[in-house]
Amino acid sequence: MNTPALEIQLQTLPNQPGVYQYYDSEGTIIYVGKAKNLKKRVSSYFTKTHDNGKTRVLVKKIATIKHIVVDTETDALLLENNLIKKYQPKYNVMLKDDKSYPWICVKNERFPRVFSTRRVFKDGSEYFGPYTSMKTVHTLLDLIKGLYSLRNCNYDLSESKIESGKYKVCLEYHLGNCKGACEGYETEAEYNESIKAIKEILKGNFKDSLSQFKSQMKQLAEDMHFEEAQQIKEKIEVLENYQAKSTIVNPKISNVDVFSIMSDESYGYVNFLQLSYGSIIRSHTLEIKKKLDETDVELLELAITEIRQRFHSKSKEIYVPFKVEIGENIKVTIPQLGDKKHILDLSLRNAKYYRMERFKQDKIVDPDRHANRIMAQMKADLRLHEEPRHIECFDNSNIQGTNPVAACVVFKNGKPSKKDYRHFNIKTVEGPDDFASMEEVVYRRYKRLLDEQQPLPHLIIIDGGKGQLSSALKSLDALGLRGKIAIIGIAKRLEELFYPNDPIPLYLDKKSETLKVIQQLRNEAHRFGIEHHRNKRSKSALNTELETITGIGEKTVVELLKHFKSAKRVANAKLDELEPIVGVSRAEKIYNYYHNK
């Protein structure tokens, strides 16, 4: 059967919530998406002009559209998530279903065992987790073992087998780690009380266990059983110590999931905090690779569905930084202040730290990837036509109008290329005129690069506002380079970025990496220029005094400074120290000048 044309497929789509699937001409699924209204959402791909190049390519490759109608938007979210994980379509964000998380199992049996596992069976047992690290599992199991006496054997402790005396107590009983249920020394009701308390602890509720232990301790002390009371007291201390290590938020905040997102041009980082009885019982950050320039809202909606599914969350309320659509049965709260806002900020901080750690790891393992990411970010942020792999930044330096100089620093792939730095002494400008000086150095720099057939930069940064930028543009016009090299000016006070022929400046996020690279360039140009300016002034000051001595020329000054290293040492030198360097006649002139003075 021939596939109908796309126009016909679009016309026959229902106005219902559901999931749509795009297939290419070879029948391979290339994209899965969800929609409140299938017809409107799918039609928008073919009627809108897409800014993102990958989206335009996707639309060109669509040959067949299939859809699945569902009852609610929640069902659409879950189905979309499952299909993405199953088929891993080329243009969807990457969602990997990791089945290897550890769990704590309370076995479905008489006298249940409590142990860690990575495999979940539908045998009626209760599984708590999954946990994001094995260390957390071991810590909890050690806590439980210290508080309650549970068996760790795998015997079938049926009532008939215990009564027939089939089993004998082992070493664990004699060590006090087990109460001997295998020989009937502990009743099933007593054992199940411990299991009930353990389940509450695994849910994050320490209150009931603490209350129970304190009652036991008080009763034992009243009955004069002080040794047993001391043992219970030690258990209370263990439990309180563990509880203190948990991040306590607010006892009133219970059974809530908290989600936040931090993203860049390639990845989204979604942090998940799970709260129970006022404590954080789980933290996990999911890294999502973007495919079609997805928004933070789209990424967060997908991540919330995936994480809640992965960690089997039953919470009826979530805290998020902005409005998301994740179904009808979940309360969405956007905290503005107080403890709720504090916990959301904590989640965002976790996402940021995770992102920073990934960047550091990438920088060590694959330095090129780090540079590529920054270059792509700068291209997007600064609205450039190509990545600014080669950037040059200019700065003028004149203090109180003396010795005007300029500096040009060069960054390649986001890093300083110090061998390419250049100093300029201002030649054609009289007095302190920053605009004319900028025009001169930009012209000289690129005239030379053109004459020597050297590669031109992708981006020029002028340290200054509209005036300096206009002066630099005059030089580019004179050289025929206007439009061939991107050029911007950065004003010192508010970090405003100015573009040619655009009166409105661009303001970047103060924490953006693009702004940090630009600031580093500007600061480096300033440092390099000031250093040259200082050297020039000090050299000028030294030379001036020595050259005022009658009969002492430039060559003599150079010889003296080579030997004595400074003008001060020349002034303090004895006559017999000067004579071997400059001869008797000139030595006397120098000696007499300083000593008569």
Automatic annotation (TrEMBL):
Keywords: Cytoplasm, DNA damage, DNA excision, DNA repair, Excision nuclease, SOS response. Residues 262-476 form the UvrC family homology region profile domain. Its main location: cytoplasm. HAMAP family: UvrC. Belongs to the UvrC family. Interacts with UvrB in an incision complex. PANTHER family: UVRABC SYSTEM PROTEIN C, UVRC/OXIDOREDUCTASE. This is UvrABC system protein C.
